[in-house]
Amino acid sequence: MESEKVLSLTDLTMNYGPKRVLNGVDLDVFKGQIIGYIGPNGAGKSTTVKIMLGLIDGFEGKVEIFGCDISEGNPDYKRRIGYVPENAEAYDTLTALEYLQFTGELYGMDNSDAKEKALRLLNEFDLEDVAHKRLSSFSKGMKQKTLIISSLLHDPDLLFLDEPLSGLDANSIMIIQELLAQLAAQGKTIFYSSHIMDLVEKISNRIVLLVEGKVVADGSFTELQALSEKGTLSDIFNQLTGFTENKTIAERVVSIVGEGSHDADL
Amino acid sequence: MMQTFKSLQFLRLFKGLFEKFGIDYDALQKILSIKLTMDQRRVPTIFNDSKKKEGNHFFKSLWIYALYGLILIPFLLLGTNYVFQMSLVFGLIIFIIMTSMISDFSTVLLDVRDKNILNTKPINGRTINAAKIVHVMIYMTVITGAFVTVPLIVGLVRHGIVFSIVFFIDLVFTLLFVVVLTALIYLFVLRFFDGERLKDIINYVQIMLSVGIIVGYQILIRSFNVVDFDIVYSFSWWHVFIPPLWYGATFELAMHPIFTGPFISLALLGFIIPVIAIFLYARLMPSFERNLEKLLSDSGKKRKSNWLANLWAALTCRSKEERLFFRFAMTMMKKEREFKLKTYPGIGIALVFPFIFIYTELSERSLADISTGRTFLFIYFCNLLIPVTVHMLKFSGSYKGSWLLKAAPIKNRSAAYSGTLKAFLVKLYLPVFLLLSVVFTWIYTLNVIPELIAVLLGGILQTLVTYKIINNETYPFSNSFEFAQETDGFKMFLLSIVTLVFVITHLISTFINYGAYIYIAVLLIFIFVGWRIVFPTTTGAANNKLI
After folding, report:
1. Which of A143, B326, B460, B547 has its CA 20 to 30 A from that of A54?
2. Interval A179-222: pLDDT, tens
3. Chain B neighbors of A143, CB-CB under 8 A
4. Rounded to an integer, what is the distance from CA A197 to the centroid of its chain?
5. Domain containing B260: what range?
6. Class for domain A5-84+156-257, per CATH?
7. Does residue B301 belong to the interface with chain A, where contact is any CB pair within 8 Å?
8. Which DSSP category does B304 fall into?
9. Is residue B250 part of a domain?
């Protein structure tokens, strides 16, 4: 598939004080790809995404998005990006509709367009009854849906999704899964990071595995399977991150939990 | 739904100016209107009860500033020695604006929580930062307005229209000066430090600023020589570093008019410095944003176990649960940055105030003379830190974590605050008090020790009374700081008066033979009985108190 390059990382390196978080990441992403960006906790996934969104400065290497170097400081490239943050951060005291309207306007949409589109999308996600309720009263799943809407409202060409499915029920997950596939077919690019391997395996057409700030595997699921003798992505993940101790750790934990619990005098 | 804010309509007048600084005005307006909308929605309870009060609680607490503003009136009526009177007036104004800026609005400037929401959008960092400072500026304008409206009218009546115009212009520049100066100081600090250390340094800077303002005010008064009840101003070179004098000088120029070199240069400083500060800030804004990120990074290091905390816990607490909360509160007070931000400046002031008064006495009497009198009662100024700090124990930046306290099988709920108050006394009150006591013992000889013990016991009793009046909840650290400044200002005012009650009782006791010892005995009984009534050890009584 020969298509347009959407983002390109060249030798991306990032240090937090003496600690090296990204250790020379090279990555080219093309139009219409769904990238599953995976790796153990602390591998540098969120840092990569935050650098691309312009949330973190002080990196070394080159970051190009839609062909422009983001270190030049022009924020206009962000207009074509949608983002779902990992911890469902939002202005909780606003109502869902107000929040969506606000984000839409920040992306340069017209006030009434943003409102109309937001209402229609809320309707599709079964949130029409709570459109005028505050986000602080939302359940985790409802809030997550609102944030997904806010990332799509301005029709972005590139989506960054950080654990986008946390808190969603099985039906909503199926909608999102289908949604991502259709968006990608339409030529949108999706950059997706998650710890749920089954989903990454199903959704992504390209999987990038980051370990200790470096890309250790990059390819489609079938290509990754060739690297490993085991079956599921979860197994491949274990193998490539060199983790085999799950059973012995669990045994140790169970035994520690059981210790001294009966003579505690509370 | 969203509404249009008057303050933003007013702001529109300066659209061109903002754009000159490279700020996207439309985005600025959107962000501000969202922030103001959110400010209106703060509800002072985490439980969603139906009769919750809407509206910006900030505006309801304004009248306390109006009340404070009345202090200015005597200075306005005094006479026509403008440089003296108006310097004092502006000294007080700067004091009020600066303290409120540091303790209540620093968090807005240093806030990085909405970074993920705003910085991912196509807006430049300059605009986001401008939104922050304008947001603060709106509130500071309102506070200043509440503080000076009545004095401004009094000035108009007493000194005429020219006076009030000068007053008004000076106010605008004072406000700009204070807000931008504070921002610049943070900017400077952010440049050189990071992580945990930065947070500590910011605390120290805040404490130093608060204390500095108070000491500065004393210096200001001293820059006038009182000769035969006629107050004469004579210029010294160091006066250029005292901002209130800049504005005092403008009145001399406008009203008398005395066009002498010193007055002209002082007055010019009053206008030039704020403008320079704004340009400097506009230039440095991008680096401010970048450095703010440092607040999030944490170069964590292993802390040594705190045997001292354990020792105090063992000495002061009655049950295992109380000791648990004692240690919990010790850690919270030490680590919670917002708590420190709001309370440590007050503690710094408590530490300095008694000395300022003794120092004032010194200008009239000798030290030996002072040491035989009752001026040791000045130490009660340190008890003024009790109401504010005890009030702050209700709040935490991570108040949402308090579900844990409700979910855990705690037998005796009253142990929670009992342990917390004890931790406050040990960790914050006692160090300040002991430090003061050492110096006081040196000044007033060993004879003062019984009196000091009485002051300490008074402090403990006041802590209990304060808790009963303002907190009276089950668990500490379980409310959002957003509501910290919304509590009835009048209540806090009254609680400061409680200190006065202790001072008067103590004063009376000094006229009685063995009065100090009798007073100590009475206080001990009150503390012993009072503590048991407020914090019963039986589970049943405590259960009823929950919610």
Report:
1. A143
2. 999 999 999 999 988 888 888 888 888 999 888 888 888 888 88
3. none
4. 13
5. 11-44+55-295
6. alpha beta
7. no
8. P
9. yes
